[in-house]
Amino acid sequence: MSETLDAVFQRRAIRVFETIEISPALRERILDAARAAPSSFNMQPYRLYWVESRTMRAAAARLCMGQMPAETASALVVAVADIGSWRPTAQGQLAWMRQSGFSAEKVAEFERKTKLAKWFFTQGWFGSLGVLKWVIFRLLHVWKTIGMPPISRQGLFKWAVKNTSLACENLMIAAEALGLNTCPMEGFDGRRLARLLGLSPKYHEIVMVIAIGRKSARHQDQPRWRRPLEATVRIL
Length: 236
Prior knowledge:
- The chain has a domain at 2-85 and 153-219: NADH Oxidase (3-Layer(aba) Sandwich), CATH 3.40.109.10.
- Helices cover 51% and strands 14% of the residues.
- It has helices at residues 2-10, 24-35, 54-63, 68-72, 86-99, 104-121, 128-143, 153-177, 190-197, 229-232, and strands spanning 17-18, 46-51, 75-82, 181-185, 204-215.
- Helix 5 runs antiparallel to helix 6 (104-121).
């Protein structure tokens, strides 16, 4: 447990990296840690693009405004919220349940949830179904405590970005624990970077780009300040 906390508190945004090669085994462990992050309905609505080839990394770094972390990183991880992945993800989990020997009742229950899921994700022509969902849930709220599902594509992206951010934090902590360093970046040309990766604006939104590598001796940690606990937390 102390080693995990050490990784949490030691993690810093590194501005300059030294050139190293990240082995496939190490890369896989880091990405597996990202996949283990909590996910709403286990839908995992994100994709992670590990950019390590010299050509692609250079092109992506230029689209990150030529920031030093992007220019010197051994790899760039582009974290993408993906609102179109829910159907194949649900089908993949269903196939896994069947192969893993789940009971027929459990499989049938998951199938029913999958059929209901489309009402969560589908917005209809010009958002017509989203409006209908808003009316229904507002009426239900009069009588009972109930949450509001996404009623627009913007709401779906907001939901997916939350899940993507959880995976990003797992990735950065895992990298720190395994002897690497990271720098999350929001400064990038999203439209051109999406085009470079072949993303669809209908389903994909880039959440952040994470530079990953090993801290260079040229990097100087600055004193870190955080608000006091009492200014951040309320105990009720």
